[in-house]
Amino acid sequence: MPWWSWRPGHAGGVESELRAEDGNVRLGVPPQRDPNAVVLEPLAALAVPVPVPRETPDRPASVEQVTLRRLGDALDLLDIRYLADGDGSLLAMWERHAVLFTLEGPEDEILVIRARPHSTVPPDWADRAYRVVNEWNHTRRFCKAYVGDPTERGQLPIYAEIQVPLGAGSHDALLVEMLDCGAAVSSTFVDWLHDEGALL
User: Fold this and answer.
1) I want to staple 103 with a disulfide (CB 3.0 to 4.6 A). Which of 87, 108, 127, 143 is the partner?
2) Helix, strand, coil proportions of the chain in percent (round to 5)?
3) Nearest CA to 67 among 40, 46, 88?
4) What range does the domain containing 66 cover?
5) 2 belongs to a structural domain
6) Buried b / exposed e along 36-61 (16+ C-beta atoms within 10 A)
7) pLDDT tens, 148-170?
8) Helices (runs of H) and strands (runs of E) counted in the chain
9) Residue 173 lies in a domain
């Protein structure tokens, strides 16, 4: 993974000169963006690959608390079928893995997307499992992967998860995008474990 310097000019104490696309010279870091100046664009212009609720003048996008009900609605929009357990979790099953969508934290404010391949690793492959998981974490941006505690049969499960704090809430389009990303990267992770990672 490449190492990038913190900011231009900070290492030596000299501000570097940056040239913007319009030809103007800018010194240092640009000013902080004003969050109140955000321009809302229609979702169609953003080329969102999944059908999300559209913002209209009479129904603007609103930020609401993320609930299990909203997670289920977003999974329905993504055409991801799931089972609801009695503990406040939604479980989606694929051929090679399962993905748990849930809310955790003291106030159920943390969205957790946790994937687990159906296959497990024998205990004598533990060193290889740690190396493969570390390689994924080193070369990939999404899904933190880890080796779980041994099962009752002594096998080692492999997990990948994304945790996002959403105490301030989320609008529908962002929630759908996060769930879509979590499901897609989970599938990529499990395929990688079977193929390139050669662990399962």
Assistant:
1) 108
2) 30, 25, 50
3) 88
4) 54-194
5) no
6) eeeeeeebeeeeeeeebeebeeeeeb
7) 999 999 999 999 999 999 999 99
8) 3, 8
9) yes
